[in-house]
Amino acid sequence: MIHMNQPLSIQPQRLRDSIEELGRIGSYLDDSSGLRGVNRLALTAADGEGRRHVVAKMRALGMSVTIDRIGNVYARRSGRDDSLAPVMMGSHIDSVPTAGKFDGCLGVLGALEIIHTLEDAQRVTRRPLVVAFFTDEEGSRFGTDMLGSAVATGRLPLAEAYAYKDRAGLTVESELRKIGFLGDAEEKLTPPHAYLECHIEQGPVLRSQNLDIGVVTGVQSISWHELSIVGRSAHAGTTPMELRADASVAASRINLRLRDMARSGKYGAQMRATMGAMVPVPGLVNIIPGRMTVTVDLRNPDDNLMRSAEADIIAFYDQVAHEEGVQITWRQTARTDCVQFDPRIMAQIDAAAAHRGLSRMRIVSGAGHDAQEMAHLTRAAMVFVPGEWNGISHNPREFSTPEQCANGVNVLLDVLLAIAEEP
Ligand code: GLV
Ligand code: MN
Ligand code: MN
């Protein structure tokens, strides 16, 4: 039976339970906070277990599941007209090693909750629906972010993605095979009719203004570098300061320069810069580090300011190498320009939120998302929900209430129902 005009809402408690359930896979006790966090780093055994759990949920909802050659998973629900391009919803279920339960998972489990709601209501949309989760959105293990969606949308060639290695030298291809998710479906996606993603904001803005919904206008530019700094290891007690080539001093100077650049205002008030990894070799108390591997993460909502920050920090690498007597080589491990989401869907999100009596604002995403890759293939948009504790994320304290989550997913449902009826 089809009830075309009946307003539908998801079940907040069922969504909460399903977030809790997935959050138990890869959970660990976080020493610093005493909280239980989530560690489902991409293509580890825990990620494999999480994937199998979600695939089972997809199948239980009667969806047909396809796994492509980069391990992206797509679950399809038929529409009234299966010859039409589907409307896709999705996100990721891999995590950083110190995660909470919501980053990415809300998008995937929220989309499945929408399917469950449609099943309960025996409501069939005109267009087919697809729920996706993409491989290694986080980039924490293999060093580049949005790996699976970048392959699916053609930004990253499959062979290049397969060859990425983790710190132990294990490749994406071998790890995909090991967890049983090296699928055989074509990795290049046929453009869906539209792509929708619900995600936690991962920042303080919505919560501090007591707003229910973020209508995401786009994603800021991201640039990642990996640097190898080679100096000379030597005795910490006997080597005079002026005879050193200390790779850790060079790294520290670059890190401080990043902070100074961000504080200067020269690259806009919204520039962010982080040295997230600083790995010394040999990394012992009484040896001047002869080698450091470090990473640089730059973000900027303005493409020109991003390019100017990149040029200046790259010039500084040379300056530091010269002044500290070390060699610095670097490579670009991730790079995306600013992405704009579809204005028409943004207006639909705004209207749906208004109709449900939810407060909202337009917001630029500070974090990277699969939706930014999909935006190159089709009309894409995102809905943000607020997070408690200043929206802290990539941290076990990450938390959005069942009501906050349900608001975002209900808005997504409303927009989906409209778009899925389009001819
Ligand atoms: C993904 O979480 C990112 O680094 O923005
Ligand atoms: Mn995410
Ligand atoms: Mn993340």
Protein model, in words:
This protein is an alpha+beta fold. The protein has helices at residues 12-23, 45-60, 105-120, 147-152, 158-163, 172-178, 205-208, 247-264, 303-324, 343-355, 370-374, 388-391, 402-419, and strands at residues 27-29, 36-38, 64-67, 73-77, 87-91, 129-133, 194-200, 213-219, 221-230, 234-235, 272-274, 278-281, 287-288, 291-300, 327-336, 339-340, 360-365, 379-385. Strands 3, 4, 5, 6, 7, 8, 16, 17 and 18 form a nine-stranded mixed beta sheet that branches. β1 (27-29) and β2 form a beta hairpin. α10 crosses α13 (402-419). The chain binds glyoxylic acid and manganese (II) ion (MN) (2 copies). The site of one manganese (II) ion (MN) has 6 residues, from loops.
How many helices? The count is: 13
* General shape: globular
Judged by helices, strands and strand pairing, the structural class is alpha+beta
Overall strand count: 18
Distance between the termini: 21 Å
Hetero compounds: glyoxylic acid, manganese (II) ion
Global Rg: 23 Å
Most strands sheet: 9 strands, mixed
Q: Give the integer mean of the pLDDT values.
A: 97
Low-confidence stretches: none
Which percent range describes the beta-strand content?
Answer: 15-25%
> Helical residue percent?
25-40%
Write the layout of secondary structure elements.
Blueprint: H1 12-23, E1 27-29, E2 36-38, H2 45-60, E3 64-67, E4 73-77, E5 87-91, H3 105-120, E6 129-133, H4 147-152, H5 158-163, H6 172-178, E7 194-200, H7 205-208, E8 213-219, E9 221-230, E10 234-235, H8 247-264, E11 272-274, E12 278-281, E13 287-288, E14 291-300, H9 303-324, E15 327-336, E16 339-340, H10 343-355, E17 360-365, H11 370-374, E18 379-385, H12 388-391, H13 402-419
Parallel strand pairs: 5-6, 5-7, 7-18, 8-17
Antiparallel strand pairs: 1-2, 3-4, 4-6, 8-16, 8-18, 9-14, 9-15, 10-13, 11-14, 12-14
Helix pairs in contact: 1-3, 1-13, 3-13, 8-9, 10-13
One manganese (II) ion binds at residues 96, 103, 138, 367, 394.
